[in-house]
Structures are given as structure tokens and as C-alpha cells.
Amino acid sequence: MDKKNNFLGSVGRVEAFRVVNGQKMLAFVSSTMTDTGLNTTVSADDIRGGQGAPVITRFYHDATVEVTLNDVMFKKSYVESQLGTEFEESGEAYVTEKHAVSNGSVTLDHTPISIGFGCEADQVVVWYAKEGSNDWTLVSEGISGKQISGLPDGTYCFRYLAEGIAGASTAKVYAGFVPEELHLVITTPLFAGDACAASNGAIAGEVQFDIPRFRLNGGQDFAASMSSNQQSSLSGVALGTDSGCDDGKGKMFYKITVKYNNEKLSDNYDALEVLDESLVTGATPIVYGIDSSKKATLIANSLLKFTPALVAGKFGAAGSYTIADPQAEAALTKTVTVAAE
């Protein structure tokens, strides 16, 4: 029986990995989420039979795990993952400058380049307008490097696509793009909720959701607002993974881990029991914790203290062994006899 009174609160920290040449590489880390959501559903059909067609059982199928993440920050890695592209340090960006035109000529700060679309894909163009005016005039002739000739004298704002802009990177998005598949790890804090506990209100631990195959849905919104920042939304579904031995039980969560701070085994279990079949030399101990409701939970041997110590994780010799909680040996101890093989 779970003795703890905790609630799952706040938002998660997200770590995402992508597979590159068979190796998992860190795609992004997000610690500024505004919300994290995991929605697990499964469809069911009633199996009916007999007079009156009573429900005999239910057939469950089509399990789905949907994930939604919203981050207050903008990251290029989000765009890359959603739109199946990569940013390159192109040095290309649109710039706006103010210059005085003298004798019909002006020298810009950067070299204009082709905006690269339509039938005039190789044509270099520059727009200019009086400061504060929206009446822009396009110039496509008289442009040589950074210099433009044939302009009326005066002071103007110039707008153009330039090269050599430090810090400018470009990602091209093509039709038929494929969103990335990621390995997702979401960690969300647990808080103490027991009014009688001394640690009331403190973080009691965390819950980790490990999703080995997460496919983004490719939806990327850039909705700029005058009164608030643009949030980055990442949503998609968990894909099934091979569960081994071809048993048809593909995993959607690799695992859900609940980790409490400063927890001892004796806080949750009243006794230890060892599977009889494992009480022989050369066997790996199989130890269960028994709680107050008599429920048995398998305990990893790495969390237990064996006296004498195991040999390569197995009982090394016949005789008496003591198994205990290393943090509270007197509170949770079991003595067993190991037989010869």
C-alpha cells in the first residue's frame, strides 16, 4: 500500500535525443516549459453473447500516448525537429539601413544578393523610402556590389537581402517535410501533500516519463502578438517499440519512474521475501518487498545489502545469507538459507 500523500505539480523538464548514424545525440533540453501534457488512451469494444447480449468482457485495442509541450522560449532546434530541416550559418538576412544619397549614388553597409524566387530568381533588388514613409520604391538596376547609382539625392531608408551578416542562420522548409522522431525524457516534480508531515509543501521527489519513440506532428505556429511572447508548441504521439521475443506487446512508454527524496525501503515495505527457486548457489536472488496490504513488489538487488556479499550478482556459496535495507538494516531484514547447486 502506498503510504505517501503526494501530488504531481508544476511543469516538467524535457530532454530530447535524436538518432544520428545509429548514435543518440542531444537534440534539445527545455527547462522553461509553461505546461507539459501526456494523454494516454486506449479504445475498447464490448464482447457480448448469450440471451440478452450481456457484456462478457471487453476487447482493448488502439492504445495512444499523445504528448503536448509548450515552452516560453524560442529554440532553433524546435523548428528543426518539427519541420524536418536544419539551420545553416548562411550569413543571409534582410537588413534596413539609413543612408544619404549624394550625386545619385550611395554605398550600402553590406552586399545585396538575390532574393531567389520567381522567374527573376537571379535578380538583385533593393527597396528605398523616405524615413517614416511606407511608400517604398524598388531598384533593380544600377546595383554593383555595395554601390547603387541612379537614385535621387536625399536621405533614405534602404531595405534588402544581404550576405555576410554575422549570426544569421537559415533553414529551408520544403513541401513534403517529415518531422523528426525523438527519444523524449520528461521529469516532473512531486510535492509533499500530507498536512501531518514535517516536509509539507516541499518537493518530495519526481516522476520521470521515458518515451523511446516520439514522433512530432509537424505543426509549427508562429503567432506573434503585440502584448505577449510567442510560445513554442511541440506535440505528437508516442510510437510503439519492440518489446522483445515477438510477444506483440510493443511499448509506448519505455518506463515511468517515481523517485522519492531520502526514501528508505523500510518506509514502504514491512518484510522481505525471497523466491525459493533462487535460493541456490550460482543463482541470482529474486527478492520481493511485502507492504502492509500484502502486495509483493520486486526489488532490484542493487538496492539491497547481502551478507556475505554476492559474487557477480549471484549467491556464491551455500549457507546463511542476510538480506537487508542498507539504509535501515534493523527495520527491514531477512535471513535465508542457500542450498548447494
What structural class is derived from the secondary structure elements?
mainly beta
Shape call: elongated
Computed CA radius of gyration, to the nearest angstrom: 32 Å
Largest beta-sheet details: 9 strands, antiparallel
Helix content: under 10%
Q: How many β-strands, per DSSP?
A: 23
Question: Order of helices and strands, N to C?
Answer: EEEEEHEEEEEEEEEEEEEEEEEE
Average pLDDT, all residues? 88
Low-confidence stretches: none
Number of domains: 3
Q: Number of helical segments?
A: 1
Terminal CA distance: 36 Å
Task: Give the percentage of residues in beta strands.
Answer: over 45%
How would you summarize what this structure contains?
By secondary structure, the protein is an all-beta fold.
Properties at a glance:
341 residues; 2% helix; 1 helix; 3 domains
What do these coordinates show?
- By secondary structure, the protein is mostly beta strands.
- It has 3 domains: 6-43 and 59-84 and 176-260; 93-163, no CATH class; 265-338, no CATH class.
- The chain is built from 1 helix and 23 strands.
- The protein has one helix spanning 76-83, and strands at residues 6-8, 13-20, 23-30, 33-48, 55-71, 93-101, 105-107, 111-112, 126-130, 137-139, 143-144, 147-149, 154-163, 181-192, 203-216, 232-238, 255-260, 271-274, 287-290, 296-299, 305-307, 319-324, 333-338.
- It is elongated.
- The model has no long low-confidence stretch (mean pLDDT 88).
